[in-house]
Amino acid sequence: MPTSVDHAITRVECGAATRERLLDAAEELFAAKGFVGASIRDITTAAECNLAAVNYHFGGKSDLYREVFRRRLAVLREQRVGAMRRFLAKGRTSPALEAVLHEFARVFLEPLVEKGLGRVLIELWAREMLDPHLPPGTFELEIVGPVQQVLAEAIEAAIPTIPPATARLCAVSIVSQLAQVVQRARWAELTGTPESGASRLDATVRHIVRFSAGGVRACSTGAR
Q1: Are 47 and 24 in contact (CB under 8 A)?
Q2: 3-state secondary structure 137-201
Q3: Which pLDDT belongs to residue 46?
Q4: How confident is the model at residue 212, as a pLDDT?
Q5: Beta-carbon-side half-sphere exposure of residue 49 (alpha carbons within 13 Å)
Q6: Within this chain, do residues 55 and 114 fall inside the same structural domain, yes or no?
């Protein structure tokens, strides 16, 4: 016979499951329609729950929107930062700068150029840029700052003589280049242009690695 403890556990599990369904449904609808276009009714219908569930779990549509971003940006942040930390932990000596930049480019682009989650993230990001509804500084706090910092640390590991401030500026430049690659790859996919091919993307990444390695070394020499 089920006990009161069993019933309590069941309620908690159902609550957690409902919350995740709301997040999943909201993510898809916000990506497809934007904050204004995706109604609470649309979201709760897709999540198969009642209208009151959004207020119960998140306090309202705006907080649900923020949590959709926070959840996915946290995953993306940990993928990138964790991968670079593991890469740096492998060797006991300073890694080659080109190896650092190539690994960073890989972990930066991989989650975004893949189907599914990568596409949804780009659509969410694009809609937020056009019609902002997140608190100011959300992207900087959740993803941009931590990712640029781990790249700056990796550059310092490869070139121990580079000043930290210079390494941070180099990291900003490299991240900006890769972000542009993501935007162009998505546009090419939507329009069906030849640039959408994997070989084209690989060639672009190789160029960014070579170009950025030369720039980092030049900045390092000029900073002394």
Answers
A1: yes
A2: CHHHHHHHHHHHHHHHHHHHHHCCCCCHHHHHHHHHHHHHHHHHHHHHHHHHHHHCCHHHCHHHH
A3: 96
A4: 97
A5: 24
A6: no
Q: Closest Cα to residue 70, out of 142, 5, 153?
A: 142
Pair of tokens at residue 58: 């998140």
pLDDT confidence of residue 11: 46
Q: Model pTM?
A: 0.82
d(CA 88, CA 194): 35
d(C-alpha 76, C-alpha 177), whole Å = 18
Question: Do both 30 and 110 map to the same domain?
Answer: no
CATH number at residue 123: 1.10.357.10
Give dist(CA 132, CA 110) in Å, integer. Answer: 26
3 state DSSP class of 60: coil
Give residue 76's Cα distance to chain centre. 4
